[in-house]
Amino acid sequence: MKIKILLFGQLKEKLDAGFIEIESMEDSDLLLAKLKSEFPVLSDISFRIAVDKILIAEKVVLSEKSEVALLPPFSGG
Amino acid sequence: MERYQRQIILSQFGREGQNKLATAKVLVVGAGGLGCPVLMYLAAAGVGHLGVVDKDVVSLSNLQRQILYKTEDIGLPKVERAKHYLQQMNPEVNVTTYATYLTTQNAVEIIDDYDMVVDATDNFPSRYLINDACVLLGKPLIYGAVSNFEGQVAVFNADLGNDKRSANYRDIFPNQPMENEIGNCAEIGVLGVLPGIIGCIQASDVIKLITGIGKPLINQLQTVNLLTNHWQTFVIQPSQETRSLIPTDLVAFKAKDYSLLCRLKLDIELDAVDFQSYFDREDVVIIDVRETFEKPEIDHFHHQKHPLSTWEKELPSFDKNFIILFCQSGKRSLEAAKILSQRDENKTIFSLKNGILHWQNHHKINLNEPS
């Protein structure tokens, strides 16, 4: 089961895509580890992970329908 | 009152709303792409007192998005031109200008005079400085930021009653990014209407906060993508760790160097996988920066306890050349590593990435008290 991950801001440029699809994992920690191993550039940039529109503070269990998004900070004004 | 007639006839707003605006004092930090629309709409709406902080002068490349200024203003201080045009538009509004950068030395004095603050700056050190000052002074902060075709808006530190405050910037992004992580504003592109839209949402939430109508973006982060017209709202969960990343008081705030933290180009996070290989090295000291009461207790490797909360009083010294810091989730230890790196430039300083809980999971080690 593939999961679609929405990218925001400069993550789009770093990964040259608006979203990525990877094999879904059991929880958000495992997903994050997998993302970082498949896309090493993610280790060099700050971002927050959102699951179902919540910026999660700790690990959450993922389902097939989970909506995942990665949000980096913006500095521009 | 005829000037404001079209908003006074709004039933939720009324004369009462207009009077609240007239007595309100709002500080706008940054008179650029975000600051211009914020200032223009707040002045037009009749916010009684506006403060504007900006040290820059108008330049040609500003005019594509900084819509207060005209070509003939090039080379002139932004705050002066802003005041001139705002008072031309609405003479009933008082405008106080501060032709300076906001620093830890002047921020408290300037911010304390106002009811709330609008973050319309274009760099991370200012954003973290303003956030921390607003938390310490108990001021609501209306945040906006842009990058390329996307923007973010939120209301931070709003008064929820019972001495409670809503989430702040550090609940979303706990630590200031290093300079090499995210491009700064001078380098990134921005479509001119983007700060216009984001600034207007900020102005709208300022008006809602002052008049008490509607639902401002409290504990919420609004994202806007102009290319797709995708607007999304994310829930922000306040974190207990956030407060320990903010200076404990105004004295500690004034001593903090926000710009230096951003200038540091460091690769200072140590992966959990590699942590174990440092346990028995003679030249390494491992430091727990958590508060002394925090669990789990760690007895798997030698370490010392120096809670981050005590560092403002006295920065701990270590005779080893290799220092590894850890905390629960890796946020406080990262902050500690940055602080220590400023003083001990010649030492190798690491923060355990994602903290001791992650390491514990990673190694499936049965510590004293499983979490």
Which CATH class of the largest domain in chain B? Alpha Beta
Give the strand order, joined by hyphens, for the main sheet of chain B: 3-2-1-4-5-6-9-10
**Largest two-chain interface:** A-B, 23 and 44 residues
Helix content of chain B: 25-40%
Number of helices of chain B: 14
| CATH fold descriptor of chain A | Ubiquitin-like (UB roll)
Q: What is the helix/strand order of chain A?
A: EHEHEEE
Strand tally of chain A: 5
Give the count of helical stretches of chain A: 2
Reported by name, the CATH topology of the largest domain in chain B is Rossmann fold
Oligomer: heterodimer
Any idea what the shape of chain A is?
globular
Strand proportion of chain A: 25-35%
CATH class of chain A reads: Alpha Beta
Low-confidence stretches of chain B: none
Bin the strand percentage of chain B: 15-25%
Could you characterize the architecture of this molecule?
The complex is a heterodimer of chains A (77) and B (371). Chain A contains 2 helices and 5 strands. Chain A is α+β, with helices and mostly antiparallel strands and 77 residues long. Chain A has a single domain (2-71), classed as Ubiquitin-like (UB roll). In chain A, strands 2-1-5-3-4 form a 5-stranded mixed sheet. By secondary structure, chain B is of the alpha/beta class. In chain B, helix 3 packs parallel to helix 4 and helix 3 (35-45) packs across helix 8 (193-211). The longest helix of chain B has 19 residues, at 193-211. Chain B starts with a helix and ends in an 8-residue tail after the last helix. The mean pLDDT of chain B is 91. The interface between A and B is medium-sized, with 23 and 44 residues. Strand 4 of chain A pairs parallel with strand 10 (230-236) of chain B.
